């Protein structure tokens, strides 16, 4: 079996490549290195902008495709719309066409909890109505629709994996890294986007990869959707406290509210996913959200040991 990983030079993709290589699998990464530069010397890399025409790109037939390539920044999707559309929608269309052309065994798509928008149903199950409030969430929803369409019309087994906030390891962005960078510049003041009361779920990178793998092994036909997240959540203020404890600082907090307590336009203030469907396959997170945040802080400060 050959694995094709789009976005395999990026954050989550790089960890997935490591996992597959360690298991002795043949891995081909397709990436333009615009949002990541990680290389595992045991994998093959094809430098390719997936927004381009892929008619000259060939992959082994019956491969398993993990589609992780995307622009990961939710905030910029609200003003850099065309760039996000191309990287999150056009790229996904090109990938499912590649899957159809070369008879892919299955396609696993990295979607996002942002497809739900803000909902009163907490924890949020997979059958909840999808009402994204950011272009990032909207474009992930478009990707999910393509996954379902190609499965139904071309018989390709596909799955959309709706991820909570993934962190730890070689994390390149997000609130934890943002706080650490700000406090390194000025340990006496911490600027917090929103009102600090936003409450969300966090999952460690190794738990994310194990979830991907168990989903992959259990998908054999049709189209499926799985939430991947934690069983608890914590506020932005609680995240700040953990970061400050690990760095040994006590800064003054300055809040920058984009309206209604949001950190930015399109910021989902409350997110906790119902993961009971995935737990039925025998998976569960190894760390609580607070433990995930503390591990991520240490990974960033002291360096990820793998």
Description:
This protein has helices at residues 11-22, 81-101, 135-154, 175-185, 205-218, 236-247, 276-279, 289-302, and strands at 2-6, 26-31, 44-47, 64-67, 106-112, 158-163, 165-167, 189-193, 199-200, 202-204, 223-228, 234-235, 252-256, 270-271. The chain has 306 residues and is an alpha/beta fold. A seven-stranded parallel β-sheet has the order 3-2-1-4-5-6-11, with helices on both faces. Helix 6 (236-247) packs across helix 8 (289-302). The protein is globular, with a radius of gyration of 19 Å. The mean pLDDT is 97.
Short description:
This protein is α/β, with parallel strands linked by helices. The chain contains 8 helices and 14 strands. It folds into 2 domains: 2-166 and 202-228, NAD(P)-binding Rossmann-like Domain (Rossmann fold); 171-200 and 232-270 and 287-302, Alpha-Beta Complex (UDP-galactose 4-epimerase, domain 1).
CATH class of the largest domain: Alpha Beta
- Biggest sheet strand line-up: 3-2-1-4-5-6-11
Can you count the helices? Answer: 8
CATH architecture of the largest domain: 3-Layer(aba) Sandwich
